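Closing statement on the PRP sub-project.
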Amino acid sequence: MANVTVFDHPVIKHKLTLLRDKNTGSKQFRDLVSEISMLMAYEVTRDLKTAEIEVETPLTKTTGYELSGKKLGIVPILRAGLGMVDGILNILPAARVGHVGLYRDPETLKPVEYYCKLPSDIAQRDILVLDPMLATGGSAVAAIDFLKDKGCVHMKLVNIIAAPEGVDVVKKAHPEVPIYVAGLDEKLNEDGYILPGLGDAGDRLFGTK
Ligand code: PRP
Ligand code: URA
């Protein structure tokens, strides 16, 4: 699928399977979300620009590289996106973090915004939008709409599990936004949950069920 990267990596597949398991408790679930996010960050950042710099080893001078180009921002969609922040920050410690609070109305499945706090220079940054679940796509589209309103131009969407329906909705609304998913699942059920999925990511992360 154009502009969609589905990870095909043995370690990610292994961890994703543990994440799906209904017997995995909150502590392990949080650790797995963080670890998968960190592994995904490696690929999501593959196109970052570098500039040559001189570095002095204990033996000699040589040419090294530093990240250049635009500064980075990461924007987790509350709540469940929070679970991905530490893993990404482990790889990108200088990234600034903005928060967008959206919940899905259980009746309409439409996203409702309840919180927003973004770095003041968000429009100058390249943004990774984080949410473990891309189901109907309503939350992701609303978050990207919102960031575009704030002037953001370059965004990538990073999800752990996506439903094909949600991918299509995001691609239609924001075709230029690349989507990265650890697992592309089969479909949504009649309640808007991803099958086979992992259940409610927020509840499993924070033990609220
Ligand atoms: C979940 C999930 C996404 C959204 C995905 O959040 O974390 O944000 O649903 O569904 P969608 O693609 O159909 O919009 P939820 O509304 O359950 O809130 P929470 O993160 O606070 O648990
Ligand atoms: N949100 C979740 O947390 N899980 C789903 O399967 C769908 C939306």
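The mean pLDDT is 96. With this model delivered, the sub-project is considered complete and its resources will be redirected to Aim 3.
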